[in-house]
Design a protein that fits this description.
Elements (H helix, E strand, L loop, with lengths): L4 E4 L7 E5 L3 E6 L8 H7 L1 H17 L5 E4 L4 E10 L5 E5 L2 E7 L5 H29 L5 E5 L6 E3 L4 E5 L7 H13 L8 H10 L3 H9 L11
Parallel strand pairs: 1-3, 5-7, 8-10
Antiparallel strand pairs: 2-3, 4-5, 6-7, 9-10
Helix pairs in contact: 3-4, 4-6
Length: 227
């Protein structure tokens, strides 16, 4: 029997299956869907699900713990050292430009979980003060800033002038990071992509067209383990 989770999504019109390393098998259904029929769907799609599970397992196991972590945004590179142990608490220690992973050799996910937690904290420490500085320099105020692990966006700005930044920005060169911050800060004035908005962006970043194009293809700069 295949274990699965059910998630209701108001945006879904049909049943959809997904398989991922962290969430496992998820059945996404629209509101009001008869969940008693899900078991039949699982049986019908069992071969596809099992192939997908194996593919996810292979992809996950193919990832390697990085030897170095290069944060281009601040021009600094960290070396990574791994110490395997048993019957001790898994932990990450950063000191003198080195990230040391003390982990149980039996757990494959632990080192990546530790690294991603470290990345989230490191990114917040780098990006939020940076955003504050750009805001003050440009005279574009915002309400609150946050750093998140966003899959599809480098950043976003809400109608309440709250700005979210993708933690993966720390892997990009500083010119791209600053452009993204200016891009979102300009949304605190114009909540659209009108001509008026782009004129505001151009006033603060004359080379925005070149940087915007580069940013659209910058996902490849994010290290594999952090994706």
């Amino acid at each position: 029997m295949i274990d699965y989770k059910v998630r209701t999504s108001a945006r879904s019109r049909h049943v959809r299956l997904s398989v991922s390393q962290h969430a496992g098998v998820v059945v996404v259904v629209p509101p009001g869907f008869d969940i008693s029929t899900i078991s039949d769907i699982i049986v019908k799609k069992e071969e596809w699900i099992r192939r997908s599970i194996e593919k996810v397992r292979w992809t996950g196991s193919a990832k390697e713990i990085p030897a170095r972590i290069n944060l281009r945004s601040i021009g600094f590179s960290y070396s990574v050292v791994v110490e395997y142990h048993s019957n001790r608490r898994n932990r990450l220690v950063e000191a003198n430009g080195t990230v040391k992973l003390c982990i149980d050799s039996r757990s494959k996910r632990v080192p990546f979980n530790l690294l991603k937690r470290w990345l989230r904290e490191k990114s917040a420490a780098i990006l939020l003060p940076w955003l504050e500085r750009i805001s003050e320099e440009r005279g574009l105020s915002f309400n609150r800033g946050a750093v998140r692990n966003q899959r599809t966006r480098w950043g976003s700005c809400s109608v309440k002038k709250n700005i979210n930044l993708n933690q993966a920005l720390v892997f990009l060169r500083p010119e791209l990071v600053e452009y993204l911050m200016i891009h979102e800060l300009c949304h605190t004035v114009e909540m659209n992509h009108s001509k008026k908005y782009w004129k505001l962006v151009e006033r603060h970043c004359p080379q925005y067209r070149t940087l915007d194009k580069e940013l659209r293809g910058a996902r490849k700069e994010v290290e594999v383990w952090a994706r």
